[in-house]
Amino acid sequence: MSERSTTEPPEPGRETAYDVDALRQRYGPAPVVRRCFEEADASEFVADAERDALGGARVVIRRARDGAVLYVNVRGDDAEWDVPGGGRDPGETPEATAVREVHEEVGLAVDVDDLACVHHLTFQDGDASATGVWTHFVATVSDPEPLDVQESELAATTWRETPPEDVDEFLAFALDAIRDR
Questions:
Q1: Could you please report the per-residue DSSP string of 78-143?
Q2: pLDDT, tens digit (0-9, with 9 covering 90-100), for 133-142
Q3: So what's the pLDDT on residue 5?
Q4: Are 3 and 38 in contact (CB under 8 A)?
Q5: Mean pLDDT of the region 114-135
Q6: Average pLDDT value for residue range 102-129
Q7: What pTM does this model have?
């Protein structure tokens, strides 16, 4: 898989219902990263786009009493730490994806407070391409214990005031965007 990054919109392809401009209108300015991945086989991404399910949302959940963030380690994900979230269901809004995924993975009910950043990703295979949007939101919870961890998907969870060493590259960008505000 090769990759190129750009600040310009990608070549026209299949777009999802996640509208970057609408997100920025609702939440204010947030950094947008546009990347294009040249895949050996982009058919799975194209199929998801055709059923309006390409994209996803993650949530940086902060604990109100001390500002600690909930990190999760997804099973089979090379031991990188991330935050709760996942792929969208067909037609689902970014906020609905975020709320659903957090509840499914760790049993917390959250309301998103802010948009940390947006990843606008295009997957291309020759003439076939699909574009999706992945978001990182921010939410604050006052009393998050106990967690109801989806053990079939998550290997571990931890609350930390500083990020673990091995965080997912997309999460690292989101954490930098939050810190730089």
A1: TT-EE-SEEEPPTT--HHHHHHHHHHHHH-------EEEEEEEEEEEETTEEEEEEEEEEEEEES-
A2: 999 999 999 9
A3: 42
A4: yes
A5: 92
A6: 93
A7: 0.86
* Domains of the chain, residue spans: 2-179
CA pair distance 40, 50, nearest whole angstrom: 19
Q: How far apart are CA 100 and CA 174, in angstroms?
A: 20
The token pair that represents 59 in the structure block: 């949530």
pLDDT of residue 77: 66
Cα(3)–Cα(177) distance, rounded to whole angstroms?
A: 22
Phi-psi region of 12 (alpha: psi -120 to 50; beta: other; left: phi over 0): beta
Query: What is the pLDDT at residue 24?
Result: 86
CATH 3.90.79.10 fits 2-179, yes or no: yes
- Asked whether 170 and 85 are in contact (CB, 8 A), the reply is no
Contacts of 78 (CB under 8 A, 6+ apart): none
Distance CA 17, CA 92 (A): 8
